[in-house]
Amino acid sequence: MSGRPFAGVLAPITTPFDGATGAVAPVHLRQNVVRLLDAGLDGVVVAGSTGESALLDPDEQRRMIGWVREVLPDGRWLVAGTGAESTRQAVALTGAAAAEGAHAVLVRPPAYFANATSPATLAAYYRAIADASPVPVWIYNIPKYTHLALAAGLLQQLAEHPNIRGVKDSSGDVKNLAAYRNALPRWSVLVGSGSLLYSALELGCDGGILAVACFAARRCADLVAAFRAGDRGRAGALQESLGRLDKEIVAKLGPAGVKAAMDAVGGGLYGGPVRAPLAPLAPAERERVASLVCA
């Protein structure tokens, strides 16, 4: 699969934790993946932002990839988040992800020393990871968490690397998304905001990695199918629904909100607790999430 370009919708799956021990719960993880893919998604991302990647141990990330691969149907994507603060660790995480069966890796920029980071050091970071990676690399722009926006010009410098194949843009800025699409005609350009999926498709982007797909997978898949079939009215109506869920749950409440939505929507999905220091939702917030997803 790593040789073909990506198109469609992936869920950046949550990491399910056992409520008693706090350990990753592999049974829930596998069950969630099966249900999301059965709903029509094109794949999943393990250890992304919605998966609380910053709170996971490297060995937890590695084992999760293997557990997901066990239940992944043929033709579906398994992508692993492998960005890290040091180039050395990102290379190690990437190698481990590939060894466990990931088809590609999604790599955020280092964030702790963001004020001391330059375009040259960022380019060197991504080239080193791509040089070492056994699988294709997708770049991850998420300035909300990294406080570092990746300019289209920087990505253009990396466009000739044969092992860098795509970018996920979670800036939430449609102008930035358009700049990426125009600057990177040979890459897969993926939107990271459920509020912008329809706009991304109109711009000629290839799909999205959307937290809202963790609890509204069928609507995401149906939107893409309707758009491809030329039914813009249905696609637009689905986007209106997804946009409301994205803004009220994903944007405002983060992983805790996404997990609460998974618990509320049912269908065998398991959200469960977040890992400290993230805080659980207050009861009133959980009730509001339930009312939104069940509307």
Describe the structure.
- The protein is an alpha/beta fold and 295 residues long.
- The protein has one domain (8-242): Aldolase class I (TIM Barrel, Alpha-Beta Barrel), CATH 3.20.20.70.
- The chain is built from eleven helices and eight strands.
- It has helices spanning 26-38, 58-71, 87-99, 119-132, 143-146, 152-158, 174-183, 197-202, 217-228, 232-265, 283-293, and strands at 8-12, 43-46, 77-81, 104-107, 137-141, 164-169, 188-191, 207-209.
- Strands 1-2-3-4-5-6-7-8 form an eight-stranded parallel beta barrel, surrounded by six helices.
- α3 runs parallel beside α4.
- The radius of gyration is 18 Å and the shape is globular.
- It starts with 7 loop residues before the first strand and ends with a helix.
List the helices and strands and how they pair.
Layout (H helix, E strand, L loop, with lengths): L7 E5 L13 H13 L4 E4 L11 H14 L5 E5 L5 H13 L4 E4 L11 H14 L4 E5 L1 H4 L5 H7 L5 E6 L4 H10 L4 E4 L5 H6 L4 E3 L7 H12 L3 H34 L17 H11 L2
Parallel strand pairs: 1-2, 1-8, 2-3, 3-4, 4-5, 5-6, 6-7, 7-8
Helix pairs in contact: 1-2, 3-4, 4-6, 6-7, 9-10, 10-11
